[in-house]
Structures are given as structure tokens and as C-alpha cells.
């Protein structure tokens, strides 16, 4: 079977697939990024085997400020609902999946910024998407919005004390996380240079927040990389299953 081709929606140049780029390169898997915030058009989804949607500083409801969100949500509905394409979403991508498929997203009552523990639900512990993960994990959070209602038929796979929907799956092909697993050694400093992210960070943790998060993530980078690699294996297995089912 030929290697899958992956389409990636980005909303900020520095918020890319991160360490997953290394895993894809190791496997010789091609991927195309569409920079939606820069006005790049969405290509024909039929050319791709999977859709990945990354994070960004905008909110899902900001369609007046970011009109391309309308087309992006329509593309996610087509990919997940009509084509049943394997889907992977992170942070904003998690929220976009929920809203596009009929769930709801709103401002978080308690924004989460920093390294925070998430716990897998009973469904999450049995999910193939999270095989080899948990039942608890420390992860990087950096969000002020959250999924407040999962789409009908979706499974909630993980939770934290402040956020009840940390991970979602729809069927056996769509999977998303509120938290970040794509970290590289430069991720925190890269994101800290974005005004919206820096402001959220300092509101939550004070003026030394960037240094605090940087140190916390550096200390955990081997564990973060191991978790990302396991998740990558799980995601690629879901893409392989979809490819077999199509033939």
C-alpha cells in the first residue's frame, strides 16, 4: 500500500505539526500545509488520505474577524462527516472539530495555561487512539476556550478538573485533543512571541510565566516525545485501517 498523503490546516506559521514532522519524515510520508490565516485556499480533500488541524490564537466563533473559519468548518464537516477521513485535531483543531460536527465551544470558566494533568475516561482507556497512554498524563495546556458540549455520538476520552472534554473521538476515524503533544524544544519560546499567547500566559502565571513553562516543559521533554511518538503510531494505525477499509 502506498504511503498516505496528509493535509494540514494551519492558523499560524509557528503552530505546525511540531515533532510529528520528524516522525512523518522518518516514515517517508508527505504532507501539505495550508496556511488559512494567510488566505491560502483549501484544496480538494479527495487528493488526501487524512486531515490534521492545528492550533491558533483565534476562537472558533470569530468568523467576522477570520472569514476563512466558515470554509474551514465546512471542510471539516465534509472530511469527517461525509468522507469519513481520518482526522487529528489539536487545541483549536479540537474545538473546530466539535463545533463543525454539532457540538459547542465557549470561553473556559478556568483557562488552562501550563503543565497540567489530564485523566483518561473509561472510554478513553479503551480507545485505540490512546493505546499505550495514561491513565494519567502531564501535558502542556495553553487555552482560554473549551468544548462545552460534545457532538452527538462523540466519545469523551480525557478530562481535567477544569475542563471536562480534553479529548474526543468520532467513530473510529476522528480524534482530537485540547492539549498539546506536538512540542519541540523551541515550541514554548516560539509561541511566547505571539502577543495573544503571551498575554494569556501572563494573565495566568504572571510576568515570569514564560520562563516557568519553558523550564517545566524542558524537564519533561523526553516524556512528551515518548507520548507524541505513541500517539503518532496510534494515529497512523487509524489511517492504515481506513485505507484497508477503502479497498
Lay out the secondary structure:
Blueprint: E1 6-10, H1 20-27, E2 31-35, E3 50-53, H2 68-82, E4 87-90, H3 92-100, E5 104-120, H4 122-126, E6 136-149, E7 155-160, E8 163-170, E9 174-177, H5 187-192, H6 195-205, H7 209-245
Parallel strand pairs: 1-2, 1-3, 3-4, 4-9
Antiparallel strand pairs: 5-6, 5-7, 7-8, 8-9
Summarize the structure.
The chain is α/β, with parallel strands linked by helices and 247 residues long. The protein contains seven helices and nine strands.
Keywords, separated by commas or semicolons:
247 residues, alpha/beta, 9-stranded mixed beta sheet, 9 strands, globular
Would you kindly provide a written description of the structure presented here, covering whatever features stand out?
The chain contains 7 helices and 9 strands. With 247 residues, it is an alpha/beta fold. The protein starts with 5 loop residues before the first strand and ends with a helix. The relative contact order is 0.16. The model has no long low-confidence stretch (mean pLDDT 95).
* SS strand fraction: 25-35%
Give average pLDDT, whole number. Answer: 95
Largest sheet: 9 strands, mixed
- So what's the overall shape? globular
Amino acid at each position: 500500500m502506498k504511503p498516505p498523503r496528509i493535509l494540514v490546516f494551519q492558523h499560524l506559521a509557528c503552530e505546525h505539526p511540531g515533532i510529528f514532522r520528524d516522525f512523518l519524515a522518518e516514515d517517508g510520508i508527505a504532507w501539505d500545509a495550508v496556511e488559512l490565516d494567510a488566505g491560502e485556499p483549501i484544496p480538494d480533500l479527495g487528493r488526501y488520505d487524512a486531515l490534521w488541524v492545528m492550533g491558533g490564537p483565534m476562537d472558533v466563533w470569530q468568523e467576522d474577524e477570520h472569514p476563512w473559519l466558515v470554509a474551514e468548518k465546512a471542510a471539516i464537516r465534509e472530511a469527517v462527516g461525509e468522507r469519513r477521513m481520518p482526522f487529528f485535531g489539536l487545541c483549536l483543531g479540537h474545538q473546530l472539530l466539535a463545533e463543525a460536527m454539532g457540538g459547542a465551544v465557549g470561553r473556559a470558566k478556568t483557562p488552562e495555561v501550563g503543565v497540567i494533568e489530564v485523566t483518561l475516561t473509561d472510554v478513553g482507556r479503551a480507545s485505540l487512539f490512546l493505546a499505550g497512554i495514561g491513565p494519567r498524563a502531564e501535558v502542556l495546556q495553553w487555552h482560554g476556550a473549551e468544548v462545552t458540549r460534545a457532538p452527538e455520538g462523540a466519545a469523551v476520552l480525557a478530562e481535567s478538573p477544569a475542563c471536562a472534554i480534553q479529548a474526543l473521538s468520532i467513530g473510529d476515524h476522528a480524534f482530537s485533543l485540547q492539549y498539546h503533544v506536538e512540542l519541540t524544544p523551541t515550541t514554548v519560546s516560539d509561541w511566547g512571541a505571539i502577543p495573544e499567547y503571551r498575554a494569556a500566559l501572563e494573565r495566568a502565571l504572571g510576568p515570569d510565566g514564560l520562563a516557568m513553562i519553558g523550564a517545566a516543559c524542558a524537564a519533561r521533554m523526553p516524556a512528551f516525545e515518548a507520548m507524541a511518538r505513541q500517539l503518532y503510531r496510534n494515529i497512523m494505525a487509524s489511517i492504515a485501517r481506513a485505507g484497508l477499509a477503502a479497498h
